[in-house]
Amino acid sequence: MATSRAVPNLAFRRLRGQRSPAEFAAAVRRAAREIGEQVACDARYVGRVESGEIRCPNYAYERVFLHMFPGLSLTDLGFVARERVRGRGARAAAGASAAPSTIQNDEESDVLRRAFMAGGTATVAAAGLGAFGGIPAPRAGGRFGESEVAAVEAAVRQIRLLDDRHGADGLYRRAAGPLRTAYALLDAGTTVRRSTADRLHAGAGELALSVGWLAHDSGRLEDARSHYAEALATARVGGDPALEAHCFSNTSFLARDAGRFREAVRAAQAGQHAARHLASARLLALLALREAGGWAGLGDRAACEEALGRAHTLFGRGPSDADPEWMSFFGEPELEFLEAQSWSLLGDWPRAARHARRATALHHPHFTRNLALYRAQLAADLARGGSPEEAAATGERVLELLDEVQSSRIQAMLGETARVLQTHRGAPRVAAFLEGRAALTRA
């Protein structure tokens, strides 16, 4: 049987010119920021385009590329028409021979959009995880290669995409299967290339972190703790400081949410130690914010302010090529949100509300779950700060998003806001919010 081969994209390669793939990827990310997009472009993505593996970019990348090269069309850039990639005929032809990662886009596909419109978050979870659930099992003799590693990496990206849009509650159970397969490959497999083994270690660790985050956001804190510990062990066995720093960032976040504030501080500091040679100021900024949250929970205002100051200084150094792909969510809105959480823990509600309000104003439309989270934080701070009607109005805007976003953590935040607002239930706006939330809970 004849198999189709990827056709190198020579036009795109010519447009890169003398720049290295990493330099060109940095230019793509800069162009994205100019038009308000966020893409996690790296040298590997550029290589996939130039090799022909990516035949047509997703919509976000399309807007960025057309911005970078005004006057050129997608076909001028060496891509094929979208309908040839997305159509039934193209899928049928590709399905027999393509590896799982070659038929998945890095952004939400038309299939996922239609699934969501038809059936909500649970249907999206089924459609999306069905797409990346096909990580190949270990071959005879336990060998693995590029196709298995690429499938693990694609699974990580798809989980992050679905979580950014829809929250964790409908995803967690389904994500456990791909994770088990990834670790079966890691435990049983051998490969002739050290670089492939290193990628599988990193991919399995990132997948464990992604599944752990789904557990965290859906209220399964002990499950999350177990997944994060598994990822940390993988990072240390593989000698991967970037993965280790990511593990400690998530562990610190989880400890803060669980009220283990001393552990949150220690984990954040350990993450900063692991990341000290990675040349990513943004990663260090995030870890400093995690540390600030721990100090705030301990009631140490001076230590919290010192950590916040470090975070702002590091963030101000800007992005770099060394920033990890998983940090695409960490922009100015998240910086403001995490600072709001610290002031909230310290009991400075007006200051917390100012930062939470900035987070909602600056949010990127791709991160729907984060917008709901930022508004939930703002509603809580307003309620505690003595602005019950504004808190209720903000809470109602969160309720409007919960048809699209399912997150037990956000639901818990709204529940606490409702509890605080009970004493103001005579106000019409407050009564409307309380009734809306009660109706959602009943449903």
UniProtKB/TrEMBL annotation:
User: How is this protein named in the record?
Assistant: Tetratricopeptide repeat protein
